[in-house]
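Hey, I was hoping to borrow your eyes for a little while. For a while now I've been wondering how a particular protein folds. The fold is given in discrete form, as structure tokens running alongside the sequence. Could you read through the record and tell me how the tokens relate to the sequence? Take your time with it, there's no hurry, and the full record follows here:
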Amino acid sequence: MLKRLLPQLRILRRSGARVVTHPFPIPGLKPVATEQVVSKEDGDSHQIQVWLPSAGPSVL
């Protein structure tokens, strides 16, 4: 699914935007931050990842 978003991420790369995913990684990139958060709704722990497309490899 996220592979289909790579063309849009190429556009974000130019703008300096950050991308946050839950719980799926972006193929070909490494997150700049990974956090565990606890949902206020159900009390479950979830992992979120922050990506900076501009910091990624040329695969974007």
